[in-house]
Structures are given as C-alpha cells and as structure tokens.
User: Fold this.
Amino acid sequence: MPFKFDLITTDPTGARHGRVSTPHGDIETPFFMPVGTKAAVKALTPEELSTLGAQIVLSNTYHLYLRPGHGVIEELGGLHKFMNWDGPILTDSGGYQVFSLGKLRKIDEAGAHFSSHLDGTPLTLTPESAMEIQEALGADIIMALDECTPYPADYEYAKKSMERTHRWARRCKEAHNSIVNGKYQALFGIVQGSMYEDLRRASARAIVEIGFDGYAIGGLSVGEEKELLREMTSLTASVLPVESLRYLMGVGTPEDLVASVEAGVDMFDCVMPTRNARNGTLFTSRGKLGIKNALFERDSGPLDPECGCYTCVNYSRAYLRHLFIAGEMLSSRLNTIHNLHYYTGLMECMREAIKAGEFARFKAGFLAGIREGV
Amino acid sequence: MPFKFDLITTDPTGARHGRVSTPHGDIETPFFMPVGTKAAVKALTPEELSTLGAQIVLSNTYHLYLRPGHGVIEELGGLHKFMNWDGPILTDSGGYQVFSLGKLRKIDEAGAHFSSHLDGTPLTLTPESAMEIQEALGADIIMALDECTPYPADYEYAKKSMERTHRWARRCKEAHNSIVNGKYQALFGIVQGSMYEDLRRASARAIVEIGFDGYAIGGLSVGEEKELLREMTSLTASVLPVESLRYLMGVGTPEDLVASVEAGVDMFDCVMPTRNARNGTLFTSRGKLGIKNALFERDSGPLDPECGCYTCVNYSRAYLRHLFIAGEMLSSRLNTIHNLHYYTGLMECMREAIKAGEFARFKAGFLAGIREGV
Assistant:
C-alpha cells in the first residue's frame, strides 16, 4: 500500500481536514501523535492508545538507536511488532535528541558527532545512518536528518545551518529506500530558517524542490515568544504545497494546536500531555489543573465534569490527588489516560468543526472555556 | 448479607476448598490476595485485577491512616468507592507496619506508640483505634491488632508478647461494631506464639475462645527457616476449627502456598508477586526468571510459553527486557500482570486439584516443573 494524503475539506479559516493512507492504516487529519520515546507511550498499552483515539504513535530514533539498538528491533520483526502496535508509526531522525540529550562533540558536513547520554560512547549520526536506522525500525513515516537551529540564532548562523539542513535533506532522500520489507516508507523533509521570514520561505522552497512525501516545520517551540511561533507557523504553512501534509514538530499546548490547525497544519507531536500527566498537571475543558492542590483533598467530583474518559468516569479528584501524592504508578497511568483523551478529543472536535465549516465558532468556544478556569 | 464460610471439599492430603460469602461477593478458597498498600495495587486498575482472577484485595491500614487519612476515605464513601473496587477487601490492623516501617517509640498495654515514617508525627495505635480506623475504611474483613513477635524471640518474651496479643484481641472484639454502614464487617483474630509449639497451641486456643469470624496465623515468614515455617503453619492450622477460615499472613513463594494449602490454609497475601514484578523477577511454570538477563536481549519468545496472560500473549522477552532496562513504567505493569496471573492461576489449579481429590498429584507435577528451570 502506498503513502497517500487526500485533502477533503478546507474550512473558511484555512483549517484543513483530510485522510492519510499508510501501510498500517488510515489517519484522519488534523491529528496528534502521542510520544512513545522508547517504544512505549509511558504507562500505557497499545490497546489503551487505540481506545483513546490515538491514530498513530511517534517513537524516538535516538533512544532506540542507543537502546536496545535498531539491529535488535529489526531482528525481532521491526518496531510495530516489537512494541505490539499495529497502527501507523512515525520516527524522528534522532537529530533533535543528539542536540538536546547527547553530549554534542562536533557538527560538520558529515553529520553530528556526539556521546551517548547513557554511557558516553562516541557516536556519529549522518543523513545516511539516520535513514539506515529508521529503515531498520520500519516506521510508516520517517524524518530527514536536520539541524534544529538553536534560538536565538544570528542571521548568518541560521542561514548556514539551514543550508546544511538542505544538503542533508538531499542526502537523506538519495540514501532512503522507499520500500522497506515490501512496504512503502514515507520520508518527510524538514523546513528550518529560525525566526527569519526570508529564510523560512527559502527553506520551504528548497525542501519542496527536493521533493518529499510530506513537509515538517522544524525549529519552533525552542524558547521563542508565542507570537513568533504563531507567525513562523502561519508563514511556513502558507508556502508549503496545498496537496501535501504539514507537520509542526514538537508543538504544543492545546491553544497552540488550535492556532496551528487554523494556520493549515495537519499533524502534531508533543510530550506535553504525557509528561504533564506524570507531573500532575491535567488539561480540562476549563484550563489546566494541578492535582496535588489541597483544594482537592476531599473532592468527590471527576477531574473534568465534561470529560468521558476512563479516569473521569471512575475516579474522584480526591483519589487522583492521593495517588499522585503517594507516588503510585497508577497516578501516572490515570493522568496520562485523561490528558491523551483530552488531546485526541480536541483533535476530533477540530476535525468535526472543519467538516462543518465552523472552525472559527469552535475556536471561540474553546478559548472561552479555557478562560473560565477550573 | 452476613459473612459465611462453607467448607465444600477436603482433599485426602488435607487441602481444603470452600466458599466465603461477603457483602461484596463470594470468594472461592483457597485464594491469594494481591496487596494494594495505598488503596491501589501498584500499576494496575481494578478492572485488570478482576480480569486476572483476583477475588479480593488487601489494603494496608497503616498507610491509609497516615495518608490520606481514614476520615477522608470515610467521607468519600469508604475504601471500595475510593479505589473503585467493588469486590471484597481485607484491611490489616496496621500493627505490622507500625513495627516494620514506623519508628516504634514504645509498646505498652495501651497500644503501640510510634512516629509516622512520612513526617515523624507521634501517633498511637490501640486495639480500639485499629477498629475505629478499619470501620471507617469499611473493608469486608478486618484484622485484630496484634504484636508480630520478632524472630528470634526467647521463650519468655514470646509468651509475654503472645499474651498481650490475646488481651488486645479481646479488646478489639469488644470495640468492634460488626455492622458498618448496614453491612456486616468480619473481624479475624491472629494467632502468635513465635516458633514454640506449646505457645502456638495455647495461642490458637485462646484466640478461638474469644471467637472471631476467621483465624489468622501471624508471626511467620519473619526470617525463620523454611522448615520451621512449614512446621508452625501445619501445627497451627491443625488446631484451628475445621469450619473456620485459616489465613496465613504475609506468605509467600509459590512453593510456600502449595505447602500451606496442603496444610489446610485457605487464604494468603504477600507483596512477592507485585514487588518482584517491579524488580524484574518473574514467576513461570519452570521457576523464576530475571528479565534483565542478557540472554533475553534478542529472545522473541514469551516469558512463559505455558502462560496465557496478556503479557505473554502480546510481548516478547526481548521487549520486556528492553522496558525493564529503560525504566519504563509499562515494564512494572506488564510484569505485575504476569506475576499476579501466575499466582491467581496457581490458586485456581489448586482449587481444581482439591475438587478432583488429586492435590498430591498436582503438587508433584508443580514441583517437577519448578525443578526443570527456565
């Protein structure tokens, strides 16, 4: 089965709804990808992810490359089989974690030279090895190796970094075997350009010219102001081809997702719902809630009265507070279920609003709810 | 609904099968109680416990008394509602944890004076307060406050300690309100006597004379030789009334359970399956297995080829090893599912063997499997 994106509806605001076909099933857009860093979405089973409406999972190449090693996963039949998830998977290139987690030793034309954060082993990630590793893992969508330009970056550095990202993108495309184990593996290119409008335009043009199965907007949510994030997202999305998938990497808050969908973005990933869950921060229809707040000690109500997730149907705020304070694993699990349900539910509401041509009305209601507070 | 134990079958070996009726449902004996220390069996939901064949859950009074407090749980409708488990619950008296976790300051006729291990607050647990706390929690079966005699103990100390346990047992019975929120709450007495045959006999006699809804064998699995554990279990079980439930507290390994059921014990609790799961030690039909062993790095087979649990049906040893080494919560969860399935499955096999009058044959096969090794 080939990789295909059908754009079905575009709302007056510019928000889009479509369908992606992958060898492991279809995905309705716009969608959010829960992050399963080490071949597991923390605390959850694949069945729970399905029940929660997750259509696709993201896993991190850097982590799997270091442990257990892509060779082990390949030998065991690939990442889908390894983690018992038969739906679509996207893997990143590993580049972002090399810069953020590994001890980066040098970055040159060949690639990124770094030391493992686990045991200090010196390693090199190149465009070619990023393809090789991701082919061994066997995801449905893989990402080109890029340099996520640090923020802030002066114009000269941003330009040089962007140009290297373009050369690496070309090498990725050349090295990539589109058919992996008899299945089409899509390769996405990544637009960089820091916060410079002309660089963003140039980068989008260059990456599209190389030609990929989809296009990612990289280098955002790196510490810039919200206004800048919104501006760069809109700008970049607007110059990407209408008929291709647009993926905003590593973003973000519920408000970010709504704003970005309006800007024409189709796909997202972020650790926020899962990481916040473990830290006791829950997303609700009335904004965020910190479950360890003493206010909830004897609160017999659900986290979010408007939520129908397993956690909200079965447990009180008082119990969830108790589990969190007692350090029980079930706390992470129940909170993760709630937060992912919130994120997938938000995406579903957006899809429905787009289909009805009422995204603007949806957005106004969403923002009013958040403003109300818990 | 009252509390009732019907002894249905006794195998030629002495192993017994029966049925307990409680306000929250029936329990087939012999049975094992998973430990939900802080109102949660670590990493699992109540639905998973049911699926795994857990008929009843044990929760620890000491922990709940300290946090969130029995008053909070009572106000929220009791422990069943708080933790969303509608089956039977047993709570211990809190005494054992006062001795093992709290900083014991003094033990006198009134009760145990200790400091909270959480914040050092000075507290006292008396027979009367142990009843009050457990009534507030609202379990189906509660335990009298006893002193778990340390091992080894000289004869004089063991005798004095035992006699105090008897006086406390009487005070518990006097203080206990059998009807809690319109439901019968059973109270069990605990036999002590350290490793002295005459004391064990005397203790069983004294506790039975006071009269309880069931009888526990306490003070074992405290560091003594296996031989002594077996001897004291058999001896004590043999002098307890045939028509009453016999509960061996805090025991033990699969081999311990089989030996104790043969000795006529009906019920067990132990942190072993759940704690070992989190430490990566798994029980299988061929003995124990340490999942972090490098042997399993590329092992595509299940933990236990003879096991039908969710973990064994869906995941490889290689993946479980990866999750454990990566410190993923899903590791604890999948391992706990497997180990509890092993324990509940073992109990079910024993019940079937007793019903068929073939416990001796079952035991021989069980021990042969264990001897084979993984």
